Amino acid sequence: MKIRQSEESEHKGQLLDRETFGRRLRNARKALGWTLQQLSELSGVSVPTISRAERGQLALGYENFASLGHALKMDMNAMFAGEGVKATALSAPVVTRSGEGVVYRGLSFAYEFLGTTAIGKLMNPVVGTVHARRIEGPEDFARHEGEEFAYVLSGTLEVHFDTGEIVRLERGDSVYYDSSIGHAYVSTSRQLARIVGVTTTESLLMRTARAGGQQNISHVAVRAPVRKRPSSRQKRPEPT
């Protein structure tokens, strides 16, 4: 899809170009001593896709770069930290000023990653611009472990699920769902829709529910202890 200049300028943050991102992937893979084939088998991403991404010839969608990051044991924030910025453990509030996020242009999304200086976060917040205008095929649906939340800042969009469900959202609307279900965003307004999105890792509760069904959830959920109330009735004297 050809992008107009006005649409390209939606994000004012530091642009992480494909070459820099590809170099980080390649360095992480080589540090582990893995071949492209080994990384492909561990991540589920094809060898040609990894090879082109490492050479900066291909922009990856969320599902692919999340799968590669997981296989490489590479923190999402290390993948998308600004050039020359070292990510550290979350030990203090992390502030991302307006226009200081790290921008990566994916296949159907432009992501402005926030809070990228903190590694090990349980949530990954982004400001996203939805570039997709239609669903081309099954490959457009992303799937990744955890949960996802999206709040519409401007424009209108549809969230398509591979179950056949379509959720239509306008400015101020939001959606929250299990992101292991195939999903894809499509802008439906004249201007590309912009959202605040948050993805999380899969929780213990979700893993248990998926593995054992709803009957097992009660064993994982935290319950307040039940305190026994003292009986208000007096003990009757034994008959003589």
What does this structure look like?
By secondary structure, this protein is an alpha+beta fold. The chain folds into 2 domains: 14-88, lambda repressor-like DNA-binding domains (434 Repressor (Amino-terminal Domain)), CATH 1.10.260; 122-222, Jelly Rolls, CATH 2.60.120.10. It has 8 helices and 12 strands. The protein has helices at 5-8, 18-31, 36-43, 47-54, 62-71, 76-80, 204-212, 217-220; strands at residues 14-15, 88-89, 102-105, 109-113, 118-119, 123-130, 147-154, 157-161, 166-169, 174-178, 183-187, 194-200. The strands form 3 sheets. The protein has a 7-stranded mixed β-sheet with strand order 1-3-4-6-12-7-10. Strands 9-8-11 form a 3-stranded antiparallel β-sheet, with no helix packed on it. Helix 3 (36-43) crosses helix 5. The longest helix has 14 residues, at 18-31.
Task: Summarize the helices and strands and which ones pair or pack.
Blueprint: H1 5-8, E1 14-15, H2 18-31, H3 36-43, H4 47-54, H5 62-71, H6 76-80, E2 88-89, E3 102-105, E4 109-113, E5 118-119, E6 123-130, E7 147-154, E8 157-161, E9 166-169, E10 174-178, E11 183-187, E12 194-200, H7 204-212, H8 217-220
Parallel strand pairs: 1-3, 2-5
Antiparallel strand pairs: 3-4, 4-6, 6-12, 7-10, 7-12, 8-9, 8-11
